[in-house]
Amino acid sequence: MTERWEPPPYPYDRLAPLREKAASLPGGVVDLSIGDPTDPPPPAVVAALAASGAERSYPTSVGSPAFRAAASSWLASRLGVDVPPSLVGACVGTKEFVAGVPGWLRLREPTRDTVMFPAVSYPTYAMGALLAGCRPLAVPVDASGRVVLDAIAASDASRALCLWVNTPGNPAGGLDDLDAAAQWGRAHGVPVLSDECYVEFTWEGPARTILASGLDGVIAVHSLSKRSNLAGVRSGFYAGDPELMGFLLEVRKHAGLMTPGPVLAAATVALSDQVHVAEQRRRYWERLVRLREVLALVGVDAPLPGGGFYLWAPAPDGDDWGLVERLAVQGGLLASPGEFYGEAGRGHVRIAAVAPLERLELVASRLTA
Ligand SMILES: Cc1ncc(COP(=O)(O)O)c(C=O)c1O
After folding, report:
1. CB of residue 122 inside a 6 A radius of ligand 1
2. pLDDT for 124-161, tens place per residue?
3. Which of these, 63, 86, 256, 290, has the minimum number of CB atoms within 10 Å of its CB?
């Protein structure tokens, strides 16, 4: 890279003028632009943050033995896969991992320079490539949100450091074929990184992980943020292929990436409980169903997702910013335009079911006034 790199405007900062307009309505803004949990985490988890006694010492970069064991047990009990704790590593929230991993993979494979990801997806996959001075490459997705593996040219595969898949998908809520992605990666010698942070909110069929296809050549990434309403404490983990894990665990140790000890203690408690997750699933589903009805008030027919807690709504005349503006000005609802999730996302609007029902009723009453 010879040119100086300037960070682009952070996508959500571009919503500030519309947030102001929505906030000026009586009752204020109903902010559904970000998947930011607003429901409470379990009290035992919050108590563990204060009671861990882990403040004094440096935490280990890979995560505490108890945390790694809890993650391993959760993978077995919830997703039916057998991954030893030694093949689990803690991360400081998964965004940190997503944004950083291309740079580390490039150290491992200096002749490769390309990061591939679904053409409609979480923007940090592309940003991770840019932060590492690599080439971001959007892979087309089909109507169900699956990456079209046949569309990847051999010349791109041979340059690829990794292929990201994300199921349930943000923003479109699709469920990908993780077995097919894993097989493609093995056939082409490309690690497949599977972002599974919405796995607990799978609505169609069972929760699924790429690790069910075997650990060879794949890494699954999991977050406590959405599952347990812990986005503020920053905790997640990654697990999979022994050789890749060995490399990443060591590199991250040198980089000083450590999840704080109290956070590891709290996350250990959270991973050991499914009751609060069932409650959260109920909340998100109820809100998705109501949000769909609220959008129908402005003539928008948004399908319920296969997974995740977003509606991916087709904008009238394909004008995503137009629909975002209308929802903000008339309904006080802040959503995000599809272009935030890639060029191929234009024409849709993403709405996160993160506000309680009474706030959605407020939007409904404004839209019908
Ligand atoms: C697809 C996807 N991956 C990763 C993340 C990051 O989550 P966290 O850093 O809180 O673990 C998000 C957050 O919205 C996301 O939507």
Report:
1. yes
2. 999 999 999 999 999 999 999 899 999 999 999 999 99
3. 256
Cis peptide before 168 (omega within 30 of 0): yes
Q: Whose CA is nearest to atom 6 of ligand 1?
A: 95
Report the candidate in 310, 320, 323 with the shortest Cα–Cα distance to residue 345. 320
Structure token digits, residue 326: 């209308």
Cis peptide before 102 (omega within 30 of 0): no
Q: Is the CB of 93 under 6 A from ligand 1?
A: yes
Q: Give CA torsion, residues 112, 61, 5, 345, to 10 deg.
A: 80
Ligand 1 contact via 166 beta carbon (within 6 Å): yes
Atom of ligand 1 nearest to the CA of 91: 11
Closest CA to 295 of 248, 321, 330: 330
Span 56-69, pLDDT tens digits: 999 999 999 999 99
Cα(112) to centroid of ligand 1, in Å?
26
What is the CB neighbour count within 10 angstroms for residue 306? 19
As a whole number of angstroms, the distance between CA 239 and CA 110 comes to 23
What is the whole-number distance in angstroms between the Cα of residue 41 and the centre of ligand 1?
A: 17
Q: How are beta strands 236-240 and 218-223 bridged, if at all? A: antiparallel
310-368 pLDDT per residue, tens: 999 999 999 999 999 999 999 999 999 999 999 999 999 999 999 999 999 999 999 99
Ligand 1 centroid to 369 CA: how many Å?
36
- Spatial CA neighbour of 144 closest among 33, 307, 299, 300: 307
Contacts of 111 (CB under 8 A, 6+ apart): none
Element of type H or E holding 310: strand 310-314
Q: One-letter amino acid identity for 208?
A: R
Residue 35 CA: nearest ligand 1 atom is 14
CA 265 – CA 53 distance, rounded (Å): 9
Which of 34, 35, 37, 56 shows the shortest CA–CA distance to 45? 37
Is residue 203 within 8 A of residue 167, CB to CB? The reply is no
CB atoms within 10 A of CB 59: 19
